[in-house]
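[agent] plan:
  1. take the single chain provided in the ticket
  2. run structure prediction with default settings
  3. attach structure tokens to the ticket
  4. add a short note for the reviewer (M.T.)
[agent] executing step 1
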Amino acid sequence: MSSVRKLTESSAQDFANKRILLVDDHTHVRTIFTSILNGLGMFRLSTADRADRALSTLQTEPIDLVITDFNMPGLSGIGLAQRIRQEIRSKNPRFNPSIPIIMITSFGTKKCLIAARDAGVDEFLAKPFTTLGVAERIDSAVNMQRPFIVSDNYIGPCRRRKVDPILSGLKRREADRIAVMNEFDLERNLMQGDAQILIDIAGYEAIEETSTEAITRIGEITAARAHKIRDGLLERAAMSLLKYVALAAAQDNLEADMVEMHGYAVKQLLDLAGKDLNLSNQVVDSLERAVAKRTRVRDVA
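[agent] step 2 finished; step 3 output follows
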């Protein structure tokens, strides 16, 4: 059974009953997304090509989830998320201000990610996206909602994380500790997004030269970010990816399953951070063994 089928069957009732508002100024993106959502059993779909029209739809239709593009003419996806969240300060809210929001992004910069998080976005979906990627983000936004926070400086899902043991002795003042925690949290979110891009790229039938360049760039960035937060296992996983891509690209035979394996491994390592060091080591060891095995097979061939 495929990963998509497993996920959609387990969440079938939740998916089928949800009313989605898709906001994107590109007709072809709305068409592709509609096909994906229909394939997931989600037919209660409204669309808008501009943020202002999306706000009008929210006032007239019982929407359960907003999926919006980051870049749009006029009011951006960030602006739309802010308007939705700020509605909670209204004496008579016109729609649900705590509605889950998924932001569609291309290669995310730290500045863009910070802006989206500060605007109260729940989940990010990286382009190019796949059916599985869409299903996972919707499942997370709908079925794993975090507490909704309303404060003077922030409105949106709770971003609180457990204290990272790596902070011991790094910075002793509480304000500095919080700043470091936020920075590490941001780096991990960026790596999660890039890992999903690897998985999405692997979902295409053929990996083209431009995709190979993107994979290499993701490996380099992930290695740098892992080094920055002092996560040696994540850094090893990134270096394993770079080693494989260099070997495979030289023979013009980059295999999608190996790229996908590295993407899922990075996501698993991020989830396991500070929880299970033995399992994390096993994940990285399996990656390195897989690369070594493929290398031996190529040498024999």
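[agent] step 4 note for reviewer: The first strand starts at residue 20 and ends at 23.
[agent] ticket updated
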